[in-house]
Amino acid sequence: MGDLAGVVGKLPYLAGLGVDGLWLNPFYASPGHDHGYDVADHCAVDPAYGSLEGFDELVATAHGHGIRVILDVVPNHASIAHPWFAAALAAGPGSPQRGRFHFADGRGPDGNEPPNNWRSIFGGPAWTRISEPDGTPGQWYLHTFAAEQPDWNWTHADVPALFERVLSFWLDRGVDGFRVDVAQGLHKKPGLPDHPDAAADEATGDPVNPNAWNQPAVHQVWRSWRRLVEDYTAADGRDRLLIGEVGLTDPAAVADYTRPGELHHTFCFPFAHAHFDADTYRQVITTALAHHPDGVAWVANNHDLPRAVTRHTPTPSDSDGDGDGEELPAGADPAQIGLARARAAAALMLALPGAVYLYQGEELGLPDVADLPVTVLKDPMYHRSGGTRPGRDGCRVPLPWTTSPDHHHGFSPPATTTPAWLPQPPTWADLAADTQHHTTTSTLNLYRQALALRRTIPDLATTTLTLHTDTPPGLLALTRGTHLTTYTNTTHHPIPTPHPHPGQPILTTHPTPHPTDTIPPNTTVWYHHDDETPA
Ligand code: NOJ
């Protein structure tokens, strides 16, 4: 599974990569029905991952490396193993204990239909019926995600109070902030009315239910959490960060979550979802900066998305004869194009102002593992959708540290004899961190180089960004500050730089040497120039 001690052991690697913060996915006590996003005890480390003492060591060691630590906090839902859920089942209908969750009587003559038509994000109804303590068929409880993840009722005073205690518990142990899971959730529309278009939720898994998401009251929660973390900062002068996962599609609605006094950041998911296309990136960057002038949190990969290498791998137009794929140059290898594009997109992202969130293994150029045997799949999204949605296991396979396949390419301790929780494919030997460390043009060294430049070039520390408009089709050009211009060529043919003397190339995502005044296909190049005119 990996554990906290393993993270401590890799902190020197993370410091060498050049990151300045570490976001840990949930490691709390959990039965693991959704990879730890079903929390049974928010203030305990699951024994599979270690102990509180091990956590304290992790924070201290990370801080010693100049790496800050933020935790995942999961406030929309609990676990069926949470003691308050057990208390709710035992206490019966109408009790204050049930009031901490959304319990309701069913519809239909015997109450055997769910209280409303809401669908679970992972597929199937968002309600599960319980047996009452006397064994009779009973009420239903709401779960926006898996049935093992009952939604909290945020209008019950115990719930906000619980989470204030949880935040304080971890802040007192030295953490630097929180990534807030499903930050658009928490409050539901009073009365839980039917969703006018519930079938759409089921079809896409997208959070479009206007009665379950983005209720005005949720902003009060973020204001109170912000006050809480600001109190810690006021006491010791250390910054604390709140970054929200806000899964809404309207950028203006997402921007509401970072109004003064609310969350500091929200992830910019449109960047991750963007097709590898200059116009699309231009539009995504413009929109993000317009809505978040104080700082965008860019993201190209995370534990919920197919990895960028796979997402950007083109489907050739003739592969299935339906003509809706992409025209590729003769002899082109789609997988290599996917990798080239992921590298180019990463270098574009790392040139942007704001924060950048990387997902473990993207610095190795890992693709998704698409052919995991069904027997090892863990994701409730796969299981609840009856296999129609592939789920997220493919992006969660442990990364290969060593070329040697021994103990899961160095992921597990040497004595390990059991399989890794998700198996690595044999081809990953070529992508191992130890090999890439020694290869100048590797993806690992590309990320290291870009992160180092991001820290040292003053223009990249400014908030100034000029998107060029006079570029040829398929070329995205932007200038940071006054001396750094980057070009991203999203086509399959080389494009000369619009300026004959673009400056000194300081980073290229192309693995082999190329003329300095030409951007190769599917490539980003960074130039440093002395003059103040954008190159
Ligand atoms: C978002 C998390 O990133 C995802 O992994 C999880 O399944 C859902 N929220 C539910 O907690």
From TrEMBL:
EC number: 3.2.1.20
Keywords in alphabetical order: Glycosidase, Hydrolase
Residue stretches making up the Glycosyl hydrolase family 13 catalytic domain: 1-396
Coiled coil residues, start to end: none
InterPro entries: GH, GH13_cat_dom, O16G_dom_2
Keyword Plastid: no
Annotated spans, Disordered: 189-213, 307-332
MF terms (GO), sorted A to Z: alpha-1,4-glucosidase activity
Family: Belongs to the glycosyl hydrolase 13 family.
UniProt xrefs under PANTHER family: ALPHA-AMYLASE FAMILY MEMBER, NEUTRAL AND BASIC AMINO ACID TRANSPORT PROTEIN RBAT
Protein name as catalogued: Alpha-glucosidase
